[in-house]
Amino acid sequence: MRFFVGLHQPSDAKHIDRAFISVNRVRSRKKQIGAGSWIMDSGAFTEIATYGRYRSTVEDYAAEINRWAIADSGLIAAVSQDYMCEPFIVAKTGLSVEAHQWLTIERYDALLPLVKNVYLMPVLQGYFPSDYVRHLGMYGDRLAAGAWVGVGSVCKRNTNVATIEHVLSAIKSARPDLRLHAFGLKITALASAVVRDLLYTADSMAWSFAARRQGRNANDWREAAAFSRLIDTMPVQTGWCL
After folding, report:
1. Which end of the chain is more exposed for a tag (fewer CB within 10 A), N or C?
2. Residue 166 above 60 pLDDT?
3. 238: β partners
4. How does pLDDT run across 98-114, given as a tens digit for each residue?
C-alpha cells in the first residue's frame, strides 16, 4: 500500500514524496506544487456536507485538473466528483444512497472526456458492503481490468475497523483485479493487515487532528512528514475481518 499524506498548504508539498491535496487549495495557486507525486481531491466532502451539491461545474473542475496536469508533472491522478453516502450526508441532500451512486457515475461520465493527460479516479460509493457491490454493477464496463478506484464513505468509520474491512473485502471479492484507494483513514484502520492488504493506496490528514489535540501546530509540514513515515514503517495488526 502506498500512502499519500493530506496537506492543508500546497506550498508544503515540496517536502513530501506523496501528497493528497484538495482542488480547493490550489484554485488560486500559480506556483508549481513540487511534490514527488500527488493526487488532486475533488473537495467532495466539503461541498456535499456543507452545501448538499457541487458549486462548481464539471467543466470548472476539469479545467483545474488540466491546468495542473500541464503545469506540474507530479500530478498522477484526480479524484472524480463523487457523492458520499453516510447517513448524515444522505439526510443533507434528501436523496437515497442509490441516487448518490448514480450521481457519482454521472459526474464521472461528464468529467472523463474533459480531463486530459492525467488519470481520473472513479469512486465507489455506498454504506453497507452490498451497496458497494451494487455500485460496481451500476458502473458496468466503465471500470477496466486493474482500474485504480476510490472507495468513499469510509473515513467516518475508523472507530470500527471491521466495517472498513468488510466493505473492502466485499469489493475485492466481486472485483479482485481492482486497485483500491481509501479516503481519510486513520492509524486504527491503517494498522490493520487486512485493510493494508486490500488497498493499493490510501490518504489521510489524521496527523493534523492529532497535532491539534496534543497542542502542536496542526499546519506544520513536519507533522505531516512524520505521520507519513510512521504509516510507511508501522507494524500491522491482524485484522478483525473473518
Report:
1. C
2. yes
3. none
4. 999 999 999 999 999 99
Read off the pLDDT of each residue in 131-138 and give the average, rounded to a whole number.
Answer: 98
Q: What domains are there in the chain, each with its CATH number?
A: 2-233 (3.20.20.105)
> How many other C-beta atoms can be found within 10 angstroms of the C-beta atom of residue 222?
13
pLDDT band of residue 30 (cuts 50, 70, 90) is confident
Closest CA to 37 of 85, 67, 73, 68: 73
Statement: residue 36 has pLDDT above 90 = no
* pLDDT, averaged across the chain: 92
pLDDT at 238: 60
User: What would you report as the CA-atom Rg of the chain, rounded to the nearest whole angstrom?
Assistant: 17
- Three-state helix/strand/coil letters over the chain: CEEEEECCCHHHHHHCCEEEEEHHHCCCCCCCCCCCEEEEECCHHHHHHHHCCCCCCHHHHHHHHHHHHHHCCCEEEEECCCCCCCHHHHHHHCCCHHHHHHHHHHHHHHHCCCCCCCEEECEECCCCHHHHHHHHHHHHHHCCCCCEEEECCCHHHCCCHHHHHHHHHHHHHHCCCCEEEECCCCHHHHCEHHHHHHCCEEEECHHHHHHHHCCCCCCCHHHHHHHHHHHHHCCCECCCCC
